[in-house]
Structures are given as C-alpha cells and as structure tokens.
Design a protein that fits this description.
The chain is an alpha+beta fold. The protein has helices at residues 19-35, 49-56, 74-82, 91-98, 100-107, 210-214, 229-246, 283-290, 295-306; strands at 7-12, 39-44, 60-63, 118-121, 135-138, 149-151, 174-179, 184-191, 194-203, 219-222, 251-258, 267-273. It folds into 3 domains: 7-88, Rossmann fold (3-Layer(aba) Sandwich); 97-114 and 182-306, ATP-grasp fold, B domain (D-amino Acid Aminotransferase, Chain A, domain 1, 2-Layer Sandwich); 118-179, 2-Layer Sandwich (Dna Ligase, domain 1).
Length: 307
C-alpha cells in the first residue's frame, strides 16, 4: 500500500496498570498521523473493542496499548481472527515477550546473556529468601517496571519478608526472583531491522521504576549513553538479535543492566518490550529523533511496516 492517506484506528487505553501511559502514547500517535494527512479513529479499548474495530473498518490498527491484554497476545489474536492488519508484534511473539521466564527460555539457548533466577510462589517469601540478598522480585508478565522490588540485606521489609510489608508479593501470586545486578541501566530501541542507539537511564532517586519512567524530571536520559564503544555495540547486537529471535515487528526496546566493573561480561538483557511507549518522555521517539527521524515519520514507518 502506498504512503496513504490511510485510515488508521489508534487503539489505546484499556484497563492495564499502564492505562494512562497508553492514552498519552495513543494521542501522540493520532495527532502525528493527522498531521501527515491520514484519517484517524481513536478507540479507547473497552470490552466492545471488536465491534468498534469492525465498525471503523480501518486500513490498519496502530496498537498503542501497554500491558495486558494489549501486549500479551490477547488483542493480537482477536485482530488476527478479524483479518485486521496491525502494528507491532504478532500473537506468538507477544505471548512470549510479555512473559519474562518464557523470554529467557527463548533467548538464553542462543547465547543471549540474561540474569539467572526462577519463578516462585509469593507465599514462599514469608518462609525465607529464594536467593541470597540482594535480589530482585518482579511480576512474570507486567511491563514498565510495574511491581518491581529490590530486596536488600538492610531493607525494612523484614527477614524473611513480613506478610504486612508492602510489595509485589501482596499483589501477585507468583513472581520472578533474579540476582540483583549492580551498575547501570541501559536501553536500546530497534526500528524495523535496525538497532538505533543506547540510552543510559539515571533515576534521580531510587531505581528506574514506573514513576521514574513516566514522571517528567525524575530520570535523566543520557542519549547516546556515555559508555565504551564495545558496550554500545554489544547492546545493539543483542537488541537486534533478540528482536529477530522473538519475531518482533515494527519497533521493540531491549532493557539492560550493565555492571561497569566487569566490562562486556557484566552486560545482561533484562527484557524485550514489544509495545514500547510513544509518549513525549518515551525512549524510542527520543532515540529516533537523535538519528534525524522525527516523531511523525517514526509513526508512519511503524504503520508502513504493518501495511
């Protein structure tokens, strides 16, 4: 299909923990497409989403949903059944990539360095630690650092973790426990079949959690990251390899921890995001802009790949 004008349904909102972020992403995408002369139908996803998509009958759907069920294969499967074209990754890729344990099983055999660890029942934490402290607990299938906790030797949650201590163990029945990797937070976007840049994320306080990601001024983005060339190259290689192995489409973003005392051996892939944010604070638009791809062009390129 030519460069349009297209009729694009922008799917956003929904009911995940990342609803507000998705609405911001979706509105940015819709305005960008309109600025390029495309017709846009905005859809804030409710349970009637299939009917609304059928009524709209778009050329393509821009999936600006974040979290479950927009990022985990559920919406992708529905759109496959409806015969709709849509942006970002398909059903199988989405199912695997949202699940941090399945992602490890898919990538580690191909030599992608990822932290060890295993899935645990949250209830077991009240009897003892699954790993030596410090370690990280995170939901198996939420995005955007929702529900991440770092368990340290001197934390105030008790040892073992107290039942009444606030944390993800109160919200999720199972959690992924991983060794804590000291060092720096890096991220690399892939657009189409090209790794863009490496950004270092420096939270002003604590670590790069949901609030730090989406509150203006709480995290400094250093782009391109001030890191050795071999680390930047390794990030890009791993991000592109993971994107291809998982079968990602459109754009993805790979998040890393780098222990800068260990060189390239200290670099670990944490997760691959198949629906990275498209808000003004988001990392993919920022990296694209540094390479001369403005926001509207970025959106059009993602739509073009889907078409």
């Amino acid at each position: 299909m030519s460069r349009g004008p297209w009729h694009v349904a922008v799917l956003m909102g929904g009911w995940s923990a990342e609803r507000s972020v998705s609405l911001t992403s979706g509105e940015g995408v819709a305005k960008a497409l309109e600025s390029r002369g495309h017709r846009v139908t905005r859809i804030d996803m409710g349970r009637d989403v299939a009917q609304r998509l059928a009524d709209a009958a778009p050329d393509v759907v821009f999936n600006a949903l974040h979290g479950v069920p927009g990022e985990d294969g559920t919406v992708q499967g529905m759109m496959d059944l409806m015969g709709l074209r849509y942006t970002h990754s398909g059903l199988a890729t989405s199912v695997i990539a949202i699940d941090k344990q399945l992602t490890k099983q898919a990538l580690q055999p191909h030599g992608i360095p990822m932290p060890g660890g295993h899935v645990i029942e949250s209830e077991s934490l009240y009897a003892g630690d699954p790993l030596p402290r410090p370690y990280v607990l995170k939901p198996v299938n939420e995005g955007s650092s929702v529900g991440v906790a770092i368990v340290t030797a001197d934390g105030n949650i008790g040892n073992p973790i107290a039942r009444d201590a606030a944390g993800p163990w109160q919200e999720f029945e199972t959690l992924l426990a991983e060794p804590y990797i000291r060092g720096r937070e890096l991220t690399t976007a892939v657009l189409g079949d090209e790794a863009l840049l490496v950004t270092e994320l420096r939270p002003k306080s604590g670590f790069y959690d949901f609030d730090a990601k989406y509150t203006d001024g709480m995290t400094e983005h250093v782009c391109p990251a001030e890191i050795p060339d071999e680390i930047a190259l390794a990030c890009k290689d791993i991000a592109l390899k993971a994107h291809r192995l998982l079968g990602c489409k459109g754009t993805s973003r790979s998040d890393f921890r780098w222990d800068d005392e260990k060189g390239v051996d200290g670099l670990y892939l944490l997760e691959v995001n198949t629906q990275p944010g498209m808000t003004p604070l988001s990392l993919v638009p920022e990296q694209a802009a540094k390479l001369g791809i403005d926001y509207a062009e970025l959106v059009e390129r993602i739509v073009e790949e889907a078409l």
